[in-house]
Design goal:
192 residues; alpha+beta; Glutaredoxin; eight-stranded mixed β-sheet; 6 helices
Length: 192
């Protein structure tokens, strides 16, 4: 079933509002979220394990496109985020660190869910400690819907064959030892 862009935006907007990620301006809408952004929160979800990486294409503000399936061959970490989401912003530098540290054996893909001012995503990443993350966009929320994500940030790990291993819903310290162990799961052979 195809959903109109307006309906998708309405559904995603309602889900994001309900999930509590409501930073819409320069001043924090939830001051406690700013202070607590570094605290480990969220949950691991393995209920989608084994599902295929969506056969989709994303773009950047300059119009370059990237087919997700073209990234098969090494593990892929996809992070759905937005410039107005405090936990998303807090974890960007950590994801950038992972992208640099694991560049040889893992691709980290941060995909912005911003629906307007998409040309600001690249500069926003650079200004917020994530210069190595590409300014990829999902302004019509197609990837969000394909993944069934309802909360930002949502981070999904795929193995080299494009099979989902787990997803993490909420903000996380991606540089912690526990996170490194989770990311290392992508290098393990799949259970028979």
């Amino acid at each position: 079933m195809l959903l109109s862009r307006s309906l998708k935006i309405l559904i995603l907007g309602c889900a994001l509002i309900a999930s509590g990620c409501d930073r819409q301006s320069e001043s924090p809408a939830q001051p406690q979220a700013e202070r607590e952004a570094d605290a480990p929160k969220g949950k691991i979800d393995r209920s989608h394990a084994g599902k295929d990486l969506p056969d989709m294409e994303i773009r950047d503000a300059a119009g370059r496109s990237l087919k997700l399936r073209s990234l098969l061959g090494k593990p892929l970490l996809i992070n759905l985020w937005a410039t107005w989401c405090a936990p998303c912003i807090a974890e960007l530098p950590m994801l950038d660190h992972v992208a640099v540290e694991r560049a040889e054996n893992m691709k980290v893909l941060a995909v912005s869910q911003d629906m307007s001012r998409t040309e600001k995503v690249g500069p926003f990443l650079a200004q917020n400690g994530a210069p190595h993350l590409g300014p990829w966009l999902d302004p019509e929320t197609d990837l969000t819907f394909a993944l069934g994500a309802q909360t930002l940030p949502t981070t999904v790990l795929y193995d080299a064959a494009g099979k989902e291993i787990w997803r993490y819903i909420g903000g996380r310290d991606w540089t912690s030892t526990a996170s490194a162990e989770l990311l290392d799961e992508a290098a393990r052979p799949a259970a028979q």
